[in-house]
Write a structure and sequence with these properties.
Layout: H1 3-16, E1 32-42, E2 52-62, E3 67-79, E4 87-100, E5 107-122, E6 127-141, E7 146-159, E8 169-183, E9 324-327, H2 343-354, E10 361-366, H3 373-395, E11 402-408, H4 419-425, E12 427-432
Parallel strand pairs: 10-11
Antiparallel strand pairs: 1-2, 1-8, 2-3, 3-4, 4-5, 5-6, 6-7, 7-8, 9-12, 10-12
Helix pairs in contact: 2-3
């Protein structure tokens, strides 16, 4: 391999050394170094010397991680390629400066340059020349104190005294390998930055701007114990069950404002201001099936049959004086079917009709204003017809006496702009027709 080929291979290895790798050992600042080495020495052709092995020793000192200095002594057992002399002893010394490119890695490339002198001894004579060298190399650490080393140098052999030489400067090349040892010194502790002071280094911190004093998880982000998307230091409800939707304060929603969160509320559409039980439903203190907020007789004895207002029906003797009866049957949205829990209300209606024997009865259907006028009119007629059918079939009333009519949203008794008003407008009225 000639000088150009070897230099190309060495440069390629040097470039590959710049590829990132895990750190095992590194240059130790303020350490003494000792490097025995051996290799090859290539002479310029017009020096009449054969390429020969070179041996030497380098003693150095690291000023820090990057800069170092070495005193180098070497010996070449030279051999003349032509002429009467056979052996030429060549001794050299130099003081070199080293610059380490990746000092904290296991594989450390470096650049080097130095000045010194050569002592050439052909036969019994001697010749002293100046020396300048520069080159590059690498150190590969196996432990903190021991590693392998190799480098290549361009050596300028500068003629100082011999006026008979035809050249003032010879260009030589050396390539060496050896062992390197580090003694003493210390490893500089790496600087670990934690800008937001949460205990997680910046290089691993996924939330580098966490407020000072806020507890953080292993990724440097504020804790969110209930995993609702609101950090604990902002969360007013830190124990929300997983999966429950929360507001910006971290608390479950309570759309009807009754104090019972939606995920626990069995009556999520309770009217505003209505007292509720732990399930979020309006209270029914006397258990008559009429919520307290609508119960006109809140202390009815249990088991008493009551009307839609929560009151016992009037005595039969007083019934003839009553000309109409209003029922709030709470039909399902858009439906005319009668729910079983309103059987008691319809019992009251049947008793009311029986209290007017021989009279013609009108069953009126009314709705609130939600929906179109046409759909509300049709729905009111359907609900009135369903109440008539129920009364006739269950209580054996005379179908010929009972008429129906639907008025839709045309006859409101309260303001449709409020939930309470709409509830009052959704009604069925049993009316004794005048003149009967």
């Amino acid at each position: 391999m000639n000088k150009v080929q070897f230099l190309g291979v060495f440069v390629a290895v040097f470039v590959l050394a710049l590829v990132p790798e895990p750190s095992l050992a590194a240059i130790r600042p303020y350490a003494l170094t000792l490097t025995p080495f051996a290799g090859g020495y290539v002479f310029e052709g017009n020096q009449r010397l054969k390429d020969r092995p070179v041996y030497g020793l380098a003693v150095g000192y690291n000023f820090g991680e990057r800069w170092g200095v070495e005193g180098v002594a070497s010996y070449v057992d030279g051999e003349v390629s032509e002429g009467p002399e056979d052996n030429v002893d060549i001794y050299s010394v130099s003081l070199d400066i080293l610059y380490h490119l990746r000092p904290s890695r296991q594989f450390v490339p470096y650049l080097a340059a130095g000045l010194g002198g050569l002592s050439v001894h052909p036969g019994g004579d001697s010749d002293q020349d100046g020396l300048f060298n520069y080159g590059l190399g690498f150190k590969y650490f196996l432990t903190d104190s021991f590693g392998l080393r190799a480098d290549v140098r361009h050596i300028l052999d500068i003629n100082i005294k011999d006026s008979d030489r035809k050249h003032d400067v010879f260009n030589n090349l050396s390539f060496t390998a050896g062992l390197t040892f580090q003694f003493g010194g210390y490893r500089e502790a790496p600087i670990i930055r934690d800008t937001d002071g949460d205990g997680v280094p910046d290089q691993f911190d996924r939330c580098p701007d966490t407020q000072l004093g806020v507890p953080a998880d292993g990724f440097g982000c504020p804790l969110d114990s209930d995993r609702d998307g609101v950090y604990d230091f902002l969360d007013h409800c830190p124990d929300t069950p997983v999966g429950v939707k929360v507001d910006q304060r971290g608390c479950p929603y309570d759309f009807d404002g009754d104090g019972v969160y939606d995920h626990l509320d069995k009556c999520p559409d309770t009217l505003a201001g209505v007292p509720v039980n732990p399930d979020g439903c309006p209270k029914d203190s006397d258990g008559d099936g009429v919520f307290d907020f609508a119960d006109r007789c809140p202390e009815t004895p249990r088991g008493t049959v009551v009307d839609a207002a929560g009151c016992p029906p009037p005595a039969p003797a007083a019934v003839p004086a009553v000309q109409s009866l209003t029922l709030h049957l709470q039909f399902d949205y858009g439906d005319a079917g009668i729910r079983p829990e309103f059987d008691k209300d319809l019992q009251v209606a049947a008793d009311f009709i029986k209290a007017h024997p021989g009279s013609r009865i009108l069953v009126e259907g009314h709705t609130d204003s939600i929906g179109s006028v046409e759909s509300n009119l049709a729905l009111s007629k359907a609900r009135a017809a369903e109440v008539r059918r129920y009364l006739v079939e269950k209580y054996n009333l005379d179908a010929g006496r009972i008429e129906t009519e639907g008025f839709g949203e045309a006859r409101p008794v309260a303001d449709n702009a409020t939930p309470d008003g709409r509830l009052r407008n959704r009604r069925v009225v049993i009316t004794v027709l005048p003149g009967q």
